[in-house]
Design brief:
This is Phage gp6-like head-tail connector protein. It comes from Stutzerimonas nitrititolerans. This protein is mostly helical. The chain has 2 domains: 1-30, no CATH class; 33-77, no CATH class. Helix content is 48%, strand content 0%. It has 4 helices and no strands.
Length: 77
């Protein structure tokens, strides 16, 4: 199966504008899941940098941690 193109990704995500093309292309070209995981974690920390959040329910989706699981060493028992 060939790798999806930027046009394929935009069609799948129902994106019609070109404002996010560079970001989407970078994600398509992410050859290393560690790089993508770092970007996801950095974006999460930047977006939620307040010490506390009032009036909302917040739960983390462990996608970045799942990407990094295969690179862990010394997992123990």
């Amino acid at each position: 199966m060939p790798m999806p193109t930027l046009a394929d990704l935009k069609t799948h995500l129902r994106i019609r504008h070109g404002h996010e093309d560079d970001d989407l292309q970078m994600k398509l070209e992410a050859a290393n899941s560690v790089r993508l995981a770092i970007l996801i974690i950095a974006a999460e920390l930047y977006a939620n940098r307040e010490e506390s959040v009032v009036g909302t329910i917040y739960s983390r989706i462990p996608k970045a941690e799942n990407m990094l699981h295969f690179y862990r060493t010394g997992l123990g028992i």
